[in-house]
Amino acid sequence: MDENAKKPDAGKVFLEESAAADARKRGRQKQINQSILIPALAVFSGLVIGAFIIIFTSEEVYAGFSQSIGAGLAASWKTVATAYGALFEGSFGSPVRMVNAVLYGDALEIRRAFNPFLESLVVSTTYIFAGLAVALGFRVGLFNIGVEGQLFIGAAAATFVGYSLKGLPPFIHMPLAFLAGGVGGAAWGFIPGWLKAKTGGHEVINTIMMNWIAFRFTDWLLSGPMQRADSGGMPISPWILDSARIPQFFPAPIRFHLGFFIALLMAYLVYWLLFKSTWGFNMRTVGANPNAARYSGMNIFRATVIGMSLSGALAGMAGSNQVLAISRNMAMGLSSGYGYDSIALALLGKSHPLGVVLAALLFGTLRNGATNMMVVTGIPIDIISIIQAIILILIAAPAIIRTVYRVKPPRETDVVFTQGWK
Amino acid sequence: MTTTTITRRFEAVSPRRQRIMGAVFLFFGFFIFWQFARPVDTNLMTTFVMTPGGLDRGFLGNWILPAQFTLYFLSIITILLGMYQFLVGFGKYTNLVLGLVALMFIFSFLVFSAAGKSLNLGGMLSNMILLSVPITLGAFSGILSERAGVINIAIEGMMLVGAMVGSLVGSLTFNPWAGLAAAVLSGAVLAWVHGVISIKYKVNQIISGTVINIFATGATSYISAKFLQEYSHLNNTPTFGRAPIPGLADIPLIGPTFFNTNFFVYAMFIFLIILQVALFSTRWGLRLRSVGEHPKAADTLGINVFRTRYIAVILGGMMAGFAGAYFTVGSVGRFDEMMTAGKGFIGLAAMIFGNWMPIGAFGAGLLFGLADTIGSKLSILGSDIPPQFMAMLPYITTMIVLAGVIGRGQPPAADGVPYEKE
C-alpha cells in the first residue's frame, strides 16, 4: 500500500496539471453551458418526435384529415395537447387541484393532490440507483450493460433476507435486507469485472450473458425454492416482513418512501468516492487512460474489479429498493427495463452523480406521467421507451443536435467513449 | 495482417490447456460411469422413436438400446479419449473431440433419462434444427456486421422489429412472402440507423446498439398495445408451413429432419453456404474482412471503408429481420410483445462461440438449439434438473469461451473501432 501511495505522485501531478491547463484553455463557462444545453435540446427534441409519433398513430388524426386539412391539424393538436397534458398532470399533479386542496385544508385531499409529484419521485428513486451504477462503471471505463441482471439478483437477495429472517427489529432488518441486495448485485458485477481483469473477456458480452443467467436463475428461484406457498403455481415470492420494509412517509395512496433519501445519499457517496478520494482518482484515471494509469503504478486489476463490483452493488440496491419499498414481494415483472434505461440516464447525466440524479428525476417524471397518459388517452406507456431511445441517440451523437440547432461545437470535442471487444 | 486466415485459427494447444481438457474429458467419462450407468437397472431398455410425430413419410423403425450396456460403453470410450488427451493430446483436433465428448455426454443423459421408457429422438432432432434457426440466423447477422468492424448488439431489437413488421404486413397482404420482405426491409432500416450513428457520427457502437434495442422494445410494444391487440385481423398472418422437398423428404431420419421442414431451415443452410463462401473465398469477402481487421490498410489499397461497413451492417440487419420473421410468418403467425425472448442475444453468443465464422456459428446454434430442446423435454423425462438451468447453458458456455478456457476466439482486430479518415 505504501509503495502504491508513493508511486503515482509524479503521474498524478502530471495528469492534474494537464487537466487543469486544458480546462483553463477551453474556458469553463462555455463548457458548462454546452453540457446543459445539449441534453436540454435532446430532451426537447425527444418530446417533439414523440408528439409526431403520437400524431401518426392516432385514429382521430386520420379521421380529421379525411375531412379537411384544417380538421386534421386541429385533431393533431388536440391529440398531442391531451396526451402531454395528461403526461404533465400525471407527473406533477393538477395545479388547480393542489391549490384548492391547500385552500380547503383537507389533509387527505392534499395528499391526493400532491401524490402524482411524489409518485414521480418514487419512480425516480430506482432510476437514481440504476443510473449511478452505470455512471460509476463509465467512470472506470467499464460498460455495465448488466444492471438489469444485477438488479434482479439484488432484488432476490433482498427479498430472501426480507422474508426469511424473522424476529429482527426494523432498524436492523431493513438495512440488512437492503444491503443484502447490494451484496447480491455486487457479486453479479464482480464476476464480469474479475473476468475482464483476469482474462480480458469483454465486460459487455459477459454482462449481457449474466443478465440472461440472472433472469433464468431468478425465474427458477421464484418457481422453486423461493416460491410462495399459496401462489397457485405463479412465480412469486412470499411477502416481505414488515420489519424489512422501507418505511413510507404517508398513509396508503402515497408510496413516497425513505428510499429516495437513501438514493440521494448514495449519489453523494458516489460523488465523494469518485471525485474526493484517492481510490476514486485511481479508478477515474484507469477509466480515462489505462496506459497512463499503468505507467504511474496504479493497480488496474483492482480498479476494474472494485469498479464493476461497486457498480453491481448500486444496481443491486435498485433491486432492494424496488422490492422492499414498492412491490414488497418479488415477481418476474419487477423491473420495467430500468437496467437498460439507466444507460441512457448515465449518458444524459454525463456520468456525474448530480447529472444522474437530475436525469433520473426527469425519466422518473416522464414514466410516471406516462402511466396517467395511458389511462386518460390510451396511448401505450411504451412511448416513453421510444422517447428515451431518441434522447439517447441525440445525447450520444451531439453532432446531430449541433447540426439541427446550429450550436457551435466547443473548441475541443468531447472524448467519445469507444472501445472494441478487446 | 496479410496472414489473417492463419491467425484466425485457434491458437496452438498449450500443454496446460491439453491437461485441462483431458481432465474435463475424464470428468465427463466418470460422470457417465457413476451417475448414469451404475444407477440404471440392468434389464432396462431405452427406446428411441426415430420418426417425428405427425409425419407420413421418411419412416424409420424404433431404435432399442440396452440402457446400462450402452452407458458403460460410452463412459469407457469417453474415459479412453480423456486419457489420451491428458497424456498425448489431440493437438489441433482438440475442440472437435471436445464436441464429440459433449455429444456422447448428452446422448448418455438421454439414454439414462429414458431408460425403461421411450423418447422421440427423431422429433428432438427436427426440433433442435427448428430452434436453432433464429439463433443461427442472428449469429450470421452479427458475423456480417462484425467482420466489417461494426459491433452489433442490436440483433435482438432488429429481430423483434422484424417479427412485428412481418406479422403486420403479412396480415395486411395475406401473403407470408410480403411479410418476410417487409421484415427484411425493417431490419435493413434499423441497421442503416445503426450505421449512421456508429459509422458516420462515430458513436460508441455498443451505445448505438443499446439505443436500437430500447427503441425496438418500445416501438414494438407500442404498436402491439395500440393496434395489434385491438384489431386481431392485423395480427393474423398466413405462415410458411412445412414444405417437404420431393424425393429427399422420404429418406429415413434425414428426410424428416432436414428436408421435410420449415422454409426457414432451408434458408438457413443456403445462407450458411453463401456466407462461408462469400466471406472466405471471394474478393468481396476479403475486402469486407480487411475493413474489419485493418481499415487503414484497406483504405490505402483503395477500398471504401465507410461504404463497405454500411453494406455489411445493412446486410446484417436484413439477416436479423429475416431471423425475426421466423417467429411470426415462420411459425405461429402472430406477434406477441417481447416474443424473441433473448434469442438475439443467444445469437450473439453463438457468433462468439463460433469464433466469428459462419460454420462455427451454425455449430453453436445447433448446440444451443439442442439445449433448448432438452430443456423443454426435461419435465417429460421426469428429470429433476430445472429447465431454467438448461436455458442458462448457452450463456455460461459463452462466458467460458470468452475467458479462454477452451481456446480463445479471435474477434476482428478493428471490431468496435470507428474509422477516422485522415
Report what the structure shows.
The complex is a heterodimer of chains A (422) and B (422). With 422 residues, chain A is mostly helical. Helix content of chain A is 75%, strand content 0%. Chain A starts with a helix and ends in a 17-residue tail after the last helix. Chain A has helices spanning 2-6, 9-26, 28-56, 59-67, 69-92, 95-104, 107-139, 147-164, 170-199, 203-223, 259-276, 278-288, 290-295, 300-327, 338-348, 353-377, 383-396, 398-405. The model of chain A is unreliable at 1-8 and 413-422 (pLDDT under 50). Chain A has a domain at 128-348. With 422 residues, chain B is mainly α. Chain B folds into two domains: 1-116, no CATH class; 122-381, ABC transporter involved in vitamin B12 uptake, BtuC (Orthogonal Bundle). The chains are: A mainly alpha (422), B mainly alpha (422). At the A-B interface, helix 9, helix 10, helix 15 and helix 17 of A face helix 8, helix 14 and helix 16 of B.
Quick summary of this structure?
The complex is a heterodimer of chains A (422) and B (422). Chain A has 422 residues and is an all-alpha fold.
Q: What distance lies between the first and last C-alpha atoms of chain B, to the nearest angstrom?
A: 20 Å
Nearest-integer average pLDDT of chain B: 83
| First-residue to last-residue Cα separation of chain A | 29 Å
Structural class estimated from helices and strands of chain B = mainly alpha
Task: Record the strand order, biggest sheet of chain B.
Answer: 2-1-3
**Uncertain stretches of 5 or more adjacent residues of chain A:** 1-8, 413-422
Largest sheet of chain B at a glance? 3 strands, mixed
Q: Please identify, by name, the CATH architecture of the largest domain in chain B.
A: Orthogonal Bundle
In N-to-C order, the SSE pattern of chain A is HHHHHHHHHHHHHHHHHH
State the order of secondary-structure elements of chain B, H for helix, E for strand.
HHEEHHEHHHHEHEHHHHHHH
The proportion of residues in beta strands of chain B is: under 5%
Q: What is the average of the pLDDT values of chain A?
A: 82
> Helical residue percent of chain A?
over 70%
